[in-house]
TrEMBL record:
<comment type="similarity">
    <text>Belongs to the DNA polymerase type-Y family.</text>
</comment>
<comment type="subunit">
    <text>Monomer.</text>
</comment>
<dbReference type="InterPro" id="IPR043128">
    <property type="entry name" value="Rev_trsase/Diguanyl_cyclase"/>
</dbReference>
<feature type="domain" description="UmuC">
    <location>
        <begin position="9"/>
        <end position="191"/>
    </location>
</feature>
<dbReference type="InterPro" id="IPR043502">
    <property type="entry name" value="DNA/RNA_pol_sf"/>
</dbReference>
<dbReference type="InterPro" id="IPR001126">
    <property type="entry name" value="UmuC"/>
</dbReference>
<dbReference type="InterPro" id="IPR050116">
    <property type="entry name" value="DNA_polymerase-Y"/>
</dbReference>
<dbReference type="Pfam" id="PF00817">
    <property type="entry name" value="IMS"/>
</dbReference>
<comment type="function">
    <text>Poorly processive, error-prone DNA polymerase involved in untargeted mutagenesis. Copies undamaged DNA at stalled replication forks, which arise in vivo from mismatched or misaligned primer ends. These misaligned primers can be extended by PolIV. Exhibits no 3'-5' exonuclease (proofreading) activity. May be involved in translesional synthesis, in conjunction with the beta clamp from PolIII.</text>
</comment>
<dbReference type="InterPro" id="IPR017961">
    <property type="entry name" value="DNA_pol_Y-fam_little_finger"/>
</dbReference>
<protein>
    <recommendedName>
        <fullName>DNA-directed DNA polymerase</fullName>
        <ecNumber>2.7.7.7</ecNumber>
    </recommendedName>
</protein>
<dbReference type="Pfam" id="PF11799">
    <property type="entry name" value="IMS_C"/>
</dbReference>
Length: 415
């Protein structure tokens, strides 16, 4: 296994991305504490992201709105605009690509690059070029922190150390000692449950952790992940293994006045259709549908087997079946706060095993052709102009356009 003798990777993390994009786009918000919320008109939600001004006054991401307002009474609550963040993301990628080729986009606000010989010699110069390019061609209110190290994981940890708008360089001779003062919270791959497991065996800090052997780390994690973590934290060139597509899904917090069971079903149906569109475009079929609903005091989840489908008709029939289970299990007066639908057990077209009783019968083929025709028309006119059933998105919009750590929406996700 190769251990680099110099830095090889750059990791870039935009600072307070959603909030900074709003401030760049809307001058009235600049220099003020703002918190991004799912939609306006309710206190019963969380701050998705907050500006550096809000963070300086005690706010943090994923903080309940009442708590955030208590910490910062003049906090300005700004409803999210995911399509603006998507467009800002694409603009920023284009500008950074003029300085250095992007190796991988890790999320809406994180990316990584491989360094060439000249960039390895002058990392500060490279970081300055990126900062200056963003300030000049995108705007001064969107900033980023940059980390340099021998591998991607170390560079990611490094770029968190001097936020906001900082540059941190960890050459191989500094590793692993430079990690010793860091809390476990700063290390990707060490969550709360793993911290408790480490504490039980007397490992309370990074110095003790890195004194373990790779095999011991593997035993603690009960998988090769622990051993791989030891190697990357000690500066070895080890890239993450490519993951396979496991699901297509969408979820949404429902507006306060659309939380009845019938209204929640209509929103779940539209989320399902959005996910089915994405699944068809990627060439997959699903053999399982999962429904999850969150209520004030409880939650409900259930799954149903599908016969290798991706057309809207079959998917909606599956949703109706799992929704009937929900209606039979919870009081009719229940208020559904959040709903999510997920297609799992995916197979590509060439791998699909069809139900022997269905065997792609003419009725099934007809509905697949209908769904593909609908997709074609919607793509042609860039909107949901044809749908199977009513299409009345909930208040706040952004149906299917949620930005997660693992997915960046496309333009069509906002149709």
């Amino acid at each position: 296994m190769r251990k680099p003798t110099t830095i090889e990777t750059l990791y870039l993390d935009f600072d307070g991305f959603f909030a900074s994009v709003e401030q760049q786009a809307r001058p009235a918000l600049r220099g003020k504490p703002i918190g991004i919320v799912p939609f306006e008109g309710t206190q019963h939600t969380v701050v998705i992201a907050c500006s550096k001004e809000a963070k300086a006054r005690g706010c943090h991401n994923v903080m309940k709105v009442p708590d955030a307002l208590k910490a910062c009474p003049d906090l300005i609550l700004v409803p999210q605009t995911p399509d603006l963040y998507r467009r800002a993301h694409n603009t920023l990628l284009a500008e950074i690509n003029t300085i250095i080729p992007i190796d991988a986009v890790k999320s809406i606000d994180e990316l990584t690059c491989r360094l060439d010989t000249s960039q390895i010699k002058n990392p500060h110069d490279l970081a300055d070029k990126i900062h200056n390019r963003i300030e000049r061609y995108v705007g001064p209110h969107i900033t980023c922190s940059i980390g340099f190290a021998a591998n991607r994981q170390l560079a990611k940890i490094a770029c968190k150390q001097d936020k906001p708008n900082g540059t941190t360089i960890w050459t191989p001779d500094l590793v692993p000692e430079v990690l010793f003062p860091l809390p476990f919270d700063d290390i990707p791959g060490i969550g709360e449950n793993m911290q408790r497991r480490l504490n039980k065996i007397g490992v309370y800090d990074m110095q003790r952790l890195l004194a373990l052997s790779p095999k011991h780390m593997r035993k603690i994690w009960n998988s090769v992940t622990g051993e791989r973590l030891w190697y990357v934290l000690n500066g070895y060139a080890l890239q993450a293994q490519k993951s396979e597509r496991g699901m297509f899904g969408h979820g949404r917090v429902l507006p306060p006045d659309q939380r009845s069971i019938p209204e929640a079903f209509q929103i779940a149906r539209m989320l399902l259709i959005k996910a089915a569109r994405r699944m068809r475009k990627a060439g997959y079929y699903s053999h399982k549908l999962h429904l999850w609903c969150g209520m004030r005091e409880s939650s409900f989840g259930t799954s149903i087997a599908l016969s290798g489908v991706h057309d809207d008709k079959a998917c909606i029939d599956g949703l109706k079946a799992v929704w009937a289970r929900l209606e039979a299990s919870v009081p009719r007066s229940s208020r559904i706060i959040r709903v999510g639908v997920t297609f799992g057990d995916l197979k590509l077209a060439g791998q699909r095993q069809t139900d022997i009783l269905l065997n792609d019968d003419p009725e099934r083929q007809k509905w697949e052709q209908v769904s593909h025709a609908i997709d074609h028309l919607n793509a042609k006119y860039s909107g949901s102009i044809v749908t199977l059933g009513p299409w009345t998105p909930p208040k706040g919009g952004h149906l299917g356009g949620k930005i997660s750590f693992t997915r960046i929406p496309r333009a069509e996700d906002f149709w």
